[in-house]
Design a protein that fits this description.
448 residues, 2 domains, four-stranded mixed sheet, alpha+beta
Length: 448
């Protein structure tokens, strides 16, 4: 295992300290490792400090250095690292490493983006085999464990009653609003929008084509979007049609979240996540902040990458002017004054209930700003807690008695038909009759 750290800032590795935006952490990292490291606890930090690190600059014309991280601290949306180089290893021209880039899991175009990846390769073994470092060079004699998910201490439930008791026992102050989300597998899902999904090797599947996805669906299904006033309205509808977007579904109904935590992955523990926030922080479909963030979906990735959040004349940058133009298409009187940090926030938004599914699931959304990463432990604005769910089959049967099932959660005739057919399937009727009559009638009917 080793860390690959890449920056575009010339001379950054001369300072001994550097800050990465959390959104750049674990890019180009295999999904198994990225999932384990989604909660950056003290054990994971110690592992990362024990891995050798390759410090590089964007492009392929600079030298790289080898060393170790000495400190990792979470600072809001950033990760602050301190580091030291291995003094007995001279700077290495990247063109010496490039021929073995595939062996080090350094991928195409990876050296053209600032990021921090964690690679499942033996850095020193690969460099020694190529003669890039001497045979005597090796990593420090420290324990280098693989990242793993620690056993959770979260509350567990196996019945609807137990779940309701847990939800009602959570004390909240006045003016606090709570939303919920269900995950059928607590170890496989992260609090990130579908736009941020990656393949098993950690490469983004949709992120770089967001503006194309948005326009292509509008082109092919324009009639469905004619009533939408705001870009957010269209994103909500696209989310409904399963297009990858920068929205993450949440609900105000805890039983709906419990249903989603149980509806699949029957043999794995699920979880219900609770999001608590001040009511004044919840935005609505016509919010200016929501409009600023939502219209990022229409801006090409090449322009989003050029936005400099440290620029004093932030709103004078060409990509920001283009974003302002998009915002004014839906809000003609919007002032040319975007607050920079607003574009990088994760906010809770209540969209219009423009279709039956959103209405039936009392839906709201987390809207993700530019390169935003939601902390799995929560943020200063949004408190997060979790309830682990087991015995899913039993819970689904109890929820059905409360009229929460596929037919009511997904209110379309094909889903209702599927639910009715499954519920009244012949074998299930036999089992029901068998339970009430001792089974004698069942066997005589089967013979006929």
């Amino acid at each position: 295992m080793y860390n690959l750290l890449v920056t575009a800032i010339e001379g950054a590795w001369d300072e001994g300290v550097y800050e990465f935006d959390k959104s750049r952490f674990l890019e180009y990292t295999n999904e198994g490792i990225a999932s384990a490291l989604k909660e950056l606890n003290s054990s994971h930090i110690e592992n990362l400090k024990n891995y050798p690190s390759l410090f590089a600059y964007e492009g392929e014309n600079s030298d790289v250095r080898i060393g170790y991280l000495t400190s990792i601290k979470q600072r809001g949306r950033n990760l602050l690292i301190e580091f030291e180089f291995q003094q007995d290893i001279e700077p290495i021209p990247f063109n010496k490493i490039k021929p073995i880039a595939p062996l080090l899991d350094i991928r195409s175009w990876e050296m053209n983006r600032t990021h921090w990846a964690v690679k499942d390769e033996d850095l020193f073994e690969r460099l020694r085999a190529r003669g890039i470092v001497g045979a005597e060079k090796e990593s420090r004699k420290t324990k280098q464990g693989r990242p793993s998910v620690e056993k959770s201490k979260q509350p567990r439930i196996s019945t609807v009653k137990g779940f309701i008791d847990k939800v009602l026992s959570i004390e909240e102050r006045n003016e606090i609003e709570v939303f919920y989300r269900g995950h059928s597998s607590k170890k496989n899902y992260k609090l990130e929008p579908s736009l941020s999904r990656r393949d098993k090797d950690g490469n983004y599947l949709y992120k770089y084509n967001e503006h194309i996805l948005y326009r292509e669906l509008l082109v092919s299904n324009s009639a469905d979007f004619q009533t939408d006033v705001y870009t957010l309205d269209s994103l909500v509808r696209m989310q409904h049609y399963s297009l990858p977007t920068r929205l993450l579904d949440i609900t105000s109904n805890p039983l709906i979240a419990l249903y989603f935590a149980c509806k699949s992955d029957a043999n794995e523990e699920g979880e219900v996540i609770l999001f608590s926030m001040k009511r004044k922080d919840v935005k609505y479909f016509d919010s200016d902040m929501a409009s600023c963030i939502a219209n990022l979906a229409r801006l090409p990735q090449s322009e989003k990458d050029k936005i400099d959040f440290d620029e004093i004349e932030f709103n004078e940058q060409p990509p920001v002017k283009r974003l302002l133009h998009l915002i004014r298409q839906e809000k003609p009187f919007f002032e040319a004054s975007i607050i920079p940090n607003d574009l990088r926030k994760v906010i809770c938004v209540k969209g219009k209930r423009s279709n039956d599914r959103i209405s039936s699931q009392p839906g709201a959304f987390l809207l993700f700003g530019l390169d935003s990463v939601f902390d799995e432990e929560g943020t200063p604005e949004i408190k997060v807690s979790r309830i682990i769910v087991s015995d899913k089959g039993s819970i689904l049967r109890e929820l059905d008695l409360l009229n929460i099932n596929e037919s009511t959660v997904f209110p379309y005739i094909e889903n209702s038909a599927k639910y009715v057919a499954e519920k009244f399937k012949f074998n299930k009727l036999i089992q029901s009759a068998d339970a009430s009559s001792g089974g004698s009638m069942r066997y005589s009917e089967k013979k006929e």
